[in-house]
Amino acid sequence: MLLTFEQAKQKILQAVSSIKLPNCEQVSLLDSLDRITAKPVISPMNVPSFDNSAMDGYAVRLSDIEHAKNLPVAGVIYAGDDVDNLHWPKGTCLRIMTGAVLPNEADAVVMQEQTEKSDFGIRFLNEVKSGDNIRRCGEDIKKDAIIVECGTKLTIPTLSTLATLGINQLTVFKKLNVAIFSTGNELTSIGEPLSNNASIYDSNRFTLRLLLQKLNCEIIDFGIIPDDPMQIKQALSNAAKQANLIITSGGVSVGDADYTKMALEQLGEIDFWKIAIKPGKPFALGKIGDALFCGLPGNPVSTLVTFYQLVQPIILTLSGQQRSSINTSFTVKTACDLKKSIGRMDFQRGKLYLDDQGELAVTTTGQQGSHITQSFNRANCFILLEQERGNVKKGERVTVELFNALLK
After folding, report:
1. Which residues pair with 208 in a beta bridge?
2. What are the tens digits of pLDDT across the range 116-155?
3. Taking every pair of C-alpha atoms in the chain, what is the biggest distance, in angstroms?
4. Contact indicator for 352, 400 with CB cutoff of 8 Å
């Protein structure tokens, strides 16, 4: 009996929980983009580290404004100026620039657009309140606060914040080692001439490399392995010694030459190898030694769908990421009929758009066969059709799941 999609995800979750996370290492801030933090990042300082002006304007004491309509300018403070020994007479104001240190006695900064110059000094046009246009020490970040939690993917905005704190070294998880290979006598590597009329290019391994690069993995590429039981077994054995995760393409179906499943049974264990989804029914999950194994179908679209839906969350978890990217799903109406057979959950490729009434709608990207790669090229979402659902009529509501960054 085939596992449902939800049952398969539960088994994957259980299998992943038994795998040890990679060790950690220290990297420079400049080399830490897309890495996963292995421990929390603590702020060594307040940000801002001192009270400063948020505007170009005038630093004032409220008591001085209450007793005079105009205040002479006693001096100028630029960003970077030291004000510890500043002499600021009573009954005057100070010209101050954005980011400059605020004198201790200043109650507010009045932006220059709200002032007028006169022969008697600076006149203030609007009511001035305590704290106006002042950036307080620690207003953005407090010293000793946790800035980044453990298990967080480091993005450009996050790293920019850490740069303001002067942090130059971060403790991150080592990149996940992922071994890949394709199986099949019909396959030819990209860039080489096809050997005969029955040969095809190994696009799946190329696609896997791109996906793994985007997920920041270390890739161990074993190339193309012929349909030979001994060679497949040897490749799996070698991969298990070097990788945290092994991903193969092809060889897990029910054909006479699908030897990967057989080799896996001899070397390790199989959790499952068929799921009630379309495309991607022949998906295998197992383990060889300390390495987790994912056997993907051979058809290009099936490979991409199963990687996205099942392998991607495995990699995020094994990489140490605690908060995986959230899949955005919601229901919309269909702009066309959709063909669907009852019995398997269907991940059809769709295009979400605004219709003439300004409402979200989804349409198919065309033929949905597991060999039709163009169905992905035009898509920006999956149309999720439930296992027990049949054909869908135009205007019915369906669940769509927007592609995350992996497919953008």
Report:
1. none
2. 998 889 999 999 999 999 999 999 999 999 999 999 999 9
3. 98
4. yes
* 352, 379 Cβ separation under 8 angstroms: no
Question: What's the predicted TM-score (pTM) here?
Answer: 0.88
Distances (CA, A) of 215 to 149, 193, 237, 325: 19, 30, 24, 12
Q: Which domains does the chain have, with CATH numbers?
A: 5-22+175-318 (3.40.980.10), 25-45+142-173 (3.90.105.10), 52-135 (2.170.190.11), 329-407 (2.40.340.10)
Sign of the alpha-carbon dihedral angle for 393, 395, 400, 405: positive
Beta bridge mates, 152:
none
Count of all residues that appear for the chain in the document: 408
d(CA 397, CA 331): 6
Of the candidates 277, 287, 283, 279, the residue with the CA atom closest to the CA atom of residue 295? 283
Torsions phi, psi for 253 (to 5 deg): -90, -150
Judged against a pLDDT cut of 60, whether residue 257 lies above it is answered with no
Which residues, other chains included, contact 285 with Cβ-Cβ below 8 Å and sequence gap of 6+? 8, 11, 12, 15, 270, 271, 272, 273, 292, 293, 294, 295
- H or E, element range at 305: helix 300-306
Q: Does position 371 have pLDDT exceeding 80, yes or no?
A: no
DSSP state of 100: P
* Helix axis angle, 260-267 to 229-242, nearest 10°: 50
**281's tokens:** 């029914």
What tens digit of pLDDT does each residue of 80-119 get? 999 999 999 999 999 999 999 999 999 999 999 999 998 8
Q: Are 32 and 159 in contact (CB under 8 A)?
A: yes
Residue 282 CA to residue 297 CA, distance in Å, equals: 6
Amino acid identity for residue 61 in this structure: R
Handedness of CA 301, 210, 188, 246 (dihedral sign): negative
